[in-house]
Amino acid sequence: MSDPAPAREPRESRESADASDFGNALAVRVLSPLWGAGRGWWLLFAIAAAGTLLLIVTVWYSVAVGTGVWGTNIPVAWAFPIVNFVWWIGIGHAGTFISAILLLLNQRWRSSVNRLAETMTLFALVNASMFPVLHLGRPWFAYWLVPYPATMGVWPNFKSALTWDLAAIVTYFVVSALFWYLGLLPDLATARDLSPRRRQRLVYGVLALGWTGAGYAWRRRGSTLLILAGLAAALVVSVHSVVSLDFSIAQLPGWHSTMFPPYFVIGAVYSGLAMVLVLSILVRRGYGLYDVITDDHLERLSKLVLATGLLLAYCYVVELFIAWDSADPYERAQYFVHRTRGPIATAYWLMLTLNLLTPQLFWFARFRRNALVLLIAGCAILLGMWLERFVIIVGGLARGFLPSSWAAYTPTWVDISILIGSIGLFGLLFLLFLRFLPVAALSEIRSDRFFTSLHQS
Amino acid sequence: MKDLISGAGALFAEFAEPEKAQRAYTELRARGYRSLDSYSPFPITSEQAQGSGGWPPLAIAVFASGLLGGIAGYLIQWYANAYSYPLNIGGRPAHAVLAFIYPTFAAAVLFAGLTAFIGLLIALRLPRLWQPVMEIGGFEHVGIDRYWIVVGLDGGALDVDRSRTELNLLGAVRILDVAADS
User: Fold this and answer.
1) For residue B102, what is the nearest residue in chain A, using CA coordinates?
2) What is the pTM of this model?
3) For residue A12, what pLDDT is reported?
C-alpha cells in the first residue's frame, strides 16, 4: 500500500505516463511492497488468517469426528468437497491459459497480469488438492493413491478416476510451479539488487539462484519458457478434461455425457478469468499500479470473459438439446424437471442468470473499462460457476434412476465453514505473495516497453 | 555460449541507457565481433526476449525424457494392475489400455517439464551463490538500471585499444578490462 491510489486521475494521463517508463522507477515502485507492509495489508491479512483458522479448525473437526459432520450422505455421496475441488481447480486454469497459451500466441499484454494469474493458479491448486484428500474420509491414507511398492503388495487401481486426478493435479502443480519460478527468476534478482537490508538481500539472492541477466541466459530462458508453455498448454485442456471424467464415466443422468471434457475446460477458463479480473482490479487499486494494469488490459480480459461465456452458453444449450434428443426419460427428467423445478431449482436458475447474463455486459465498452462493474461481474461469475458445479454434482446424485432413493441435500455448518475457510487460505497465501514476491512480471513489462519505445523513436 | 569472463578475459562496458547498450550490441555484432554478450535487468534484444532460434539440445532432451516418462508411466500401471495384482472388477480387462492413457500422458508431461527446468539450470550453471562477474564494482545494479556489453578478447586476437575506443564512441559510461580467471 505504498502510493495512494490516483483513482481520480484521468485515464489519458495515466497511460501517457507508462509508455516510456521501463527504467528504475517502475522497478522501485513495483517492488516497494517487499520492504514493508501498510495498515491495509495487515487488516486483510488478519481477515484471511481468521478464515484460515476457521479452515484448520473445521478440517480438524471433520477428520477427528469423521465425514458424518458434513451433509454428504447416500445418495448424495459427493457434495461440497467435490464441488469446491472442481471450482478451485477450474479457477486455476486461467493462470495457465494466460501464461502459456497467450505466450505462444505472442500476446504481449499478458505480461501485465501473468504473474498474478500464475500465482493464483498455484494457490487455487493448493486449495483444490485439499478437497479430494479430505473427501477420502481417512485422509491419512491418501498416499495409497501413489504406486509405491508396499509390503501389502496391493496397488492403486488405475481404472479409477481418482488416480487420474492425482496424476493430473501433481503434474499440473509441478509444471505450473516451474513455469512460475522461471518467470520470477529475473525479478527476484532485481529484488536482490534493490534490497535495502542485508537479510533481504541474502534471501532474495538465494531465491534468485545467482541470476545475473546475461544475454545467453535470457535467450536460454526464453527458449525454455516456450517449451514449458507448450507443455502447459496441453495441461490447460487435459487437466479439467480428466476432472470432468470423474463424472462422465459414471452412468448418472446429468453426468454421463461425452460433451463434458470441453464443457468443463471452457467453464474452468471462464471462472478463472473472472478470478483474474477480480484480483487484478484489487491489486491495481491496493498498490496503485494503474500504469501496469491499465484499463486496456482489463478490457482485453473482459473480452476473453465474454468469449468464454458465450462458449459456455453454447455448451448449456447443447447439453439441453442432447438431453431432449436422447429421448431417455431419466436424462430428460434430470434436465427439464429436476433442475428447473426440483429442490435445486433456485441454484439452477441463479446459475443460469449469473453465468449467461453477466458477460453480456461486456458487449459495451463503457462496462469493459469500468473497474467496479468488472469487479462485481467477476464475483458474480465466480458464484455462478460454483453453483454450476453444485447443480451438476448434487442435482445429479439427488435424482438418480430410482425414485425410491431420491433424497434432499443440505450442507451443514462444517461444509459451509470449510468453503469459507478455503477462500481464507487462498487470501492468506495471495497476501503473502503480494508482500514478499514481485507482483508483476517486471523484466517482461520493462522489455516490452523498451521495444515499444525503440520502435517509436 | 560460455561465460566470456572465464575465457581469455573480456572488456566490460557499462551503459546507463538500454537504447545505447542495445545499439552497441547490434553495431558490434554487425562489425564482426563474435564473442559478444550483455548483462541487463531485462532482455534488450528481441532474441533475448523471445528465445528465438530455439534451443535444439534442450528440445531434444525434453522430448526424450517425455517419451521416457510416458513409457515409465504406462509400465507402472501395467505392472501394478495387469501383472503384479490384477483385480477383477466387474469383468473389466486388467490391462486396460484406455484407462491408462491419462496417467501415461501426465507422466510424460511431468518428466518433460522437469527436464526443461533442470536442463536450463544445468546449462546456465545455476544455482550459484557467487559468480566472478559479481566482483565488478557496481555490478549489483545490473538487476536494476545498468546495462553491460561484454566483448570477449579471443585470446589476444583482438585489438583491445580499438575495441575500447569503439565502445566509448557507442556511449559506454566506463570500460573495464577484466582478466581471465582472476
Assistant:
1) A164
2) 0.93
3) 39
Contact A418, A127 (CB under 8 A): no
For chain B, the structural domain boundaries read 8-41+145-178, 56-123
| Contact predicate A26/A438, CB 8 Å | no
Instruction: Return the closest-CA partner of residue A412 out of A68, A57, A65, A71.
Output: A71
Chain B residue at shortest CA distance from A455: B19
Give B20 to chain A, closest Cα distance, Å.
Answer: 11
What lies within 8 Å, CB to CB, of B153 at 6+ separation is: B7, B8, B9, B10, B11, B35, B160
Q: What is the DSSP track for B70-85?
A: HHHHHHHHIIIIIIIS
Strand arrangement of the beta sheet that strand B174-178 belongs to: B36-39, B147-152, B10-15, B174-178
Q: Using CA coordinates, name the residue in chain A closest to B89.
A: A159
Give yes or no for residue B55 having a pLDDT over 90: no
- Res A13 pLDDT > 50: no
Q: What is the ipTM of this complex?
A: 0.92
Do B94 and B88 meet the contact criterion of CB atoms below 8 Å apart?
A: yes
Q: Are the C-beta atoms of residues A225 and A179 closer than 8 Å to each other?
A: yes
The fold adopted by the segment(s) B8-41+145-178 is Alpha-Beta Plaits (3.30.70)
Closest Cβ opposite residue A194 in set B1, B40, B144: B144
Contact at CB, A210 and B18, closer than 8 angstroms: no
Helix (H, G, I), strand (E, B) or coil at A123: helix
What pLDDT sits at residue A173?
A: 96
**Mutation for testing the A interface, residue in B12, B39, B48, B100 having most A CBs under 10 Å:** B48
Mean pLDDT, all residues of chain A:
91
**Residue B144 to residue A24, Cβ atoms within 8 A:** yes
List pLDDT tens digits, range B94-110.
999 999 999 999 999 99
Residue in A178, A193, A251 to test binding to B, most B beta-carbons within 10 Å: A193
CB B96 within 8 A of CB B81: yes
* Averaged pLDDT for residues B11-32: 91
Choose the mutation target among B4, B79, B135, B144 for the interface with A, i.e. most A CBs under 10 Å: B144
